[in-house]
Amino acid sequence: MKESDTKQFNWDVCGHEEIVHFLQSAISGNKLANAYLFSGPSQLGKQAVAYKLIASLFCQNQEKAKPCGVCPACLQIKNKIHPDFFITGQEMNEKTEKLSKGILIEQIRNLKHKLQQATLLNGYKVALITDAHLMNLNTANALLKILEEPTKNTVIILLVDDVSALPQTIASRCQTLRFLPVPTATIKTYLEDQGSFESGLVARQAHGYPGIAIDLVNNQDLIKTQADKVETFLKIIDADLNQRLELVEKAVNWEKDESINVTLLNDLFHSWQLVLRDALLIKTDNESLITNTTQLEAIKSNFASMSFIKIKSILNKMDQVSGYTWYNINSKSALENLIINL
Ligand SMILES: [Zn+2]
Questions:
Q1: Domain range enclosing 164
Q2: Distance from the CA of 20 to the center of ligand 1, in angstroms?
Q3: CA 124–ligand 1 middle distance (angstroms)
Q4: Are residues 169 and 39 in the same domain?
Q5: pLDDT tens per residue across span 250-302
Q6: Dist. CA 95 → ligand 1 center (Å)
Q7: Residue at a domain's end among 178, 204, 235
């Protein structure tokens, strides 16, 4: 890419340099694909990159690098009210206050209708489908029809946590970009550039997920919550079965909505897995690399009698349970099961 291309853009994204360069080249070379599939766990920055891409297409400011962030179009994208930008995903049912289980076929039909209408501003039309892995077969087929008949200057971006949960017919019609964890040093530099204190600690706690780092910086309570989760886990490791079950009972404030519980459980496991990784690092004489530096001594002593292999097997079990929870498994029993069998 020419240097002039880089100056054309100001994306301010944490990490994902290759993806960012690739998309910026596509914009400046007028070679955008009709559909993109951004794949990777949430909090990596898929949505952030999507928004920079979309705002760059609509930004009206000819003087500044795109997106300028302040012109009417940029503000409309940010506030999700641009007339040629459509976003759809899991929706909250206002009566039951529950998140829909998946994306409804009506949402995709509605999207198709909007994409078929002439653009209001004679430019691009862009659709962003978040949680695209939550489509059933009928909904996916409706989307496939849209992808099979691309209209000019239309860009569809699908965000998925897990690409294998999406029918292959959909994936094969999209240009897939895989988002990977961002190096801790990159997150640290990003936070420093934003003027954040404690960038080193927060970057380590984020463990490759810029979204987690940004949440932690924006919400000091989260740092405390994070510390509580770590403390609970250290107590669980040291406790007998009865105490463990008592501790686990208090570890999560379960909601009625199982799809929220899945997220709560995955958040909890994320913190606990960091502790397990720290324990492995300590056992392999890599203390300087651990995340929970303030808990170093507690991790050392609570895991002293647990073998490397045992710790690895708990980590694997957590990975497995996180994978299952997307398939209608009760999160609370999944957690209790794991704790009983520690
Ligand atoms: Zn702008």
A1: 3-178
A2: 18
A3: 15
A4: yes
A5: 888 888 888 788 888 888 998 899 999 999 999 999 988 888 888 899 999 99
A6: 37
A7: 178
- From the CA of 46, how far away is ligand 1's center (Å)? 20
Separation CA 139–CA 210 (nearest Å): 31
The alpha carbon of 85 and the centre of ligand 1 are apart by a number of angstroms equal to: 14
What's the CATH code of the domain at 137? 3.40.50.300
76 alpha carbon – ligand 1 mean position (Å): 9
At CA 71, angle to CA 67 and CA 76, rounded to 5? 85
> What pTM does this model have?
0.73
74 Cα: distance to centroid of ligand 1 (angstroms):
4
Name the amino acid, one letter, at 41: P
| Residue the block writes with tokens 């897990």 | 162
Total domain count, the chain: 2
Alpha carbon of 22 to ligand 1 centroid (Å): 21
Tell me the CA–centroid distance for residue 244 and ligand 1, in Å.
53
Q: Are 158 and 38 spatial neighbours (Cβ–Cβ below 8 Å)?
A: yes
Token pair recorded at residue 25: 């080249």
For residue 315, the domain's CATH number is: 1.20.272
Collapsing DSSP to helix, strand or coil, 99 comes out as strand
**Same domain (yes/no): 23, 90:** yes
Is residue 100 situated within a structural domain? Answer: yes
